[in-house]
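Lab notebook page, bench 4
Experiment: in silico fold of construct C2
Operator: M.H.
Input chain length: 180 residues
Purpose: comparison with the prior construct
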Amino acid sequence: LDGLPHPEARAALQLYNYYRARILERIPMVEEALFDTAAYLDAARRSPDLQDVLLGSLFWVHLDQGRTGAARAIAEDFLGRYPGNRLGRELRAAVLYHAEDRAGARAEQEKLREEYAALAPAPGRLRLGQYRAAGNLARIANAEGDSAARDRWLAEWRRGERGPAGPWLPARLRRELARL
């Protein structure tokens, strides 16, 4: 990868290799996925136009590998540069959930859901944020053992799933909520 002239290409291939290895590591003779965080971070920093996108991907790699502290640093850095940004707050809520701060994750997701739901309808605008928040709230309520709240949020999530937003909702969240 060092011979590639563009940092974006290096970062993209690193992500590809990581997720390919994550899929293949289920085969007993395949080694676990390795990820050179320092090299990826260097590529992200050398790409000012795509830095936030690349760091967003690194955020999810950190969560995938259980490094909530590193993921939290990316979310907080992003929010430091873009205060109040809803996607940044979704990242922070994900960290809180994975760090088992369910109350913090729930509070953030409830605020996000309200904000997304208050956005005026517009042609071509899908309510992805609202439905993601509802799905995450269902997941949080399930983890807290609150079946009434889980069912209420699942009903909203399922309305989104059946509507035009359905194909665009996160696949991992869809799979997790299908098991509830």
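Observations: The chain has nine helices and no strands. The mean pLDDT is 91.
Next step: discuss at group meeting.
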